[in-house]
Amino acid sequence: MEPxxxxxxxxxxxxxxxxxxxxxxxxxxxxxxxxxxxxxxxIEGVPGLAxxxxxxxxxxxxxxxxxxxxxTPDLVPADLVGTRVYRPDKGAFDTExxxxxxxxxxxxxxxxxxxxxxxxxxxxxxxxxxxxAHTTYPVPDPFLVMATQNPIESEGTYPLPExxxxxxxxxxxxxxxxxxxxxxxxxxxxxxAPELREALSLDDLKELQRQVFDVYVDPSLISYAVQLATAxxxxxxxxxxxxxxxASPRGPISITQASRALALIRGRDYVTTDDVRALAKDALRxxxxxxxxxxxxxxxxxxxxxxxxxxxPVPEVSLSRP
Length: 322
Fold this sequence. Notes:
Blueprint: H1 3-18, H2 25-37, E1 41-44, H3 51-62, E2 66-70, H4 77-81, E3 82-87, E4 92-97, E5 104-108, H5 115-127, E6 129-132, E7 135-138, E8 144-149, H6 162-165, E9 170-173, H7 179-188, H8 202-212, H9 219-233, E10 243-245, H10 250-265, H11 273-284, E11 289-290, H12 292-297, H13 301-311
Parallel strand pairs: 1-8, 1-9, 2-5, 5-8
Antiparallel strand pairs: 3-4, 6-7, 10-11
């Protein structure tokens, strides 16, 4: 498909999703970006902002299977990936696969689960497979984990391991809707929910994922993404005391891959500087390990990244393929 046709097909999918979800345009776009770039998405926001409904609606519009796991402190890995069950009538064990065997997995309040569960989820996210009793089972393709965090509660929560946080391609922060959006949300509760139409099949989605690799990225933009990550590892004097560890190499990889997907969504077969800058904070904010000084003084990762984006020179690139 030509870029304009791809953009039109994706816009049709977004239109169907927006029939259910009012506002939250950035979140919806980032969900598609992660789907096309074959990454995972971490969303942080207070309850009631349609995080669960978004991923369920996306699954319906794309014809994929959906599963939701509510993470709690008493969750065990078998609740997530499955386990072996003894069948007395057969005198043998059967393998019962868990809810991760779906196309779209919502890990709700992911920071409430203990370390063993996080370790099991880490294998699924990175390797896209599950190991049960020495047997490996691949999860369906495509596969997206959308995890949510509640920033206003700390009781009964566990800090996510840095290695797992690093596996999320993007982390986005969502806030309350504005007046007009919230008015639409309330009005929609007064009528029956619309019946979703499948706008893209899973085969279509796989084809679009392959097409992302054909989107051209100028070498100077790749260098720019690396420079942004390097600036977090070697911060200037104004931020040196606030950063314990900078972004890992997965940071610029995520920026580049997500930028290609964003360009495709916007109807282009090449990446622009605006694509990179639009996704830089989403790809890097969760990869910064802030010091106690930053936490004590209320310095956020976004504040640091705003300074990084302002200080790193923006390259001048051609707006098309060479």
